[in-house]
Amino acid sequence: MTSSTNIMLLDTKSNLKHRFAERGIDRVLLLIIPALTMMLIFFVYPSIYGIFLSFNPLNHSGFLGNYRSFFHDSYMRRTIFNTFRIALPVSIINISAALPVAVYVRKYVKRTRPINTLLVIPMSLGTVLIAEGLYAYLNPSGWLNQTLLDLGIISQPLRLLQNFWGVIISLVISGFPFAFLLMLSYASSINPSLELAASTLGANSRQVFRLITFPLLAPGLAITFCLNFVLAFSVFPSAELLGNPSGDSHVLAIAAADAVTQKFDYSMASTISIISAFFELFVIASVFLLRSKLYSGSTAGTKG
């Protein structure tokens, strides 16, 4: 009796194990525990605490006191416009430049490792070092202005610092390699036989790109744009070092930092962070909604 009972228990345990395994629940799943723990400690908890803190103003002005103070202040409201004025053009420029280059490299360049290595260098330098280098390059006595003056192209130095132009140039330099490498990985996963079949049926290169390549790249294009936008939207070093932090480069990240370092108001800094996150999520949701409207078919065209 005992032996048969043990056999039944083992069979039941084995069946449950197989059922869980079919649903992806097995011992391998335990490997996510460290990552999940780190995410809870360093992301989920700070986010929840920041939301709670934003509804507890330092001056005890009520539940929505910080939000009323922010949106009633025209100078603070303008930080939203300043941030969008920098983040959107940078994201559009990076995606617009990375897409055709990635498609061209994928089709006509066999050895991409030297290109990838060259483009990784700006990413490894970091925004602070890039900003320091651009400060020496773009200032009125820098190489760019002196070269243009010597060639007679301009009569006076270009003003590319202490405004949002220097910030945009810095973010393009640091963001384009990131966008290109992502787009190249998505483009390389497309099965070339699909484009070859379309060409065989009489489609020209523009039609192949519009009807085959671009729809298959749409998910990757949306993700790349969103990641670039988030990176540019949270800009801080470039805006501080190359822009005008108290003027047209007074972005949301600088406003949050000023609330902490100058006013010691962590509650208002949390409020600004929540507002920043709201606009980021709004843009991301809009991009994915637009992608679904433009193309909702299958993207199963990978090499497999």
Low-confidence stretches: none
CATH architecture: Orthogonal Bundle
Radius of gyration: 26 Å
Q: What is the arithmetic mean of pLDDT?
A: 84
What is the total number of structural domains? 1
Q: How can the largest sheet be summarized?
A: none
Strand content: under 5%
- What's the number of helices? 13
CATH class, please? Mainly Alpha
- What is the number of E strands? 0
Relative helix content:
over 70%
CATH topology: MetI-like fold
Q: Overall 3D geometry?
A: globular
Structural class, from secondary structure content?
Answer: mainly alpha
Head-to-tail CA distance between termini = 52 Å
CATH superfamily, by name, is MetI-like
Order of helices and strands: HHHHHHHHHHHHH
Would you mind describing this structure in some detail?
This protein is an all-alpha fold and 304 residues long. It has one domain: MetI-like fold, CATH 1.10.3720.10. The chain contains 13 helices and no strands. The longest helix is centred in the N-terminal third of the chain and has 35 residues, at 74-108.
Question: What are the main properties of this structure?
Answer:
single chain, 304 residues, mainly alpha, MetI-like fold, 0% strand
Strands, helices and their partners?
Layout: H1 2-22, H2 32-54, H3 65-72, H4 74-108, H5 113-125, H6 127-138, H7 143-150, H8 164-188, H9 192-200, H10 205-233, H11 237-241, H12 252-261, H13 266-294
Helix pairs in contact: 2-13, 4-8, 4-10, 5-8, 6-8, 8-10, 9-10, 10-13, 12-13
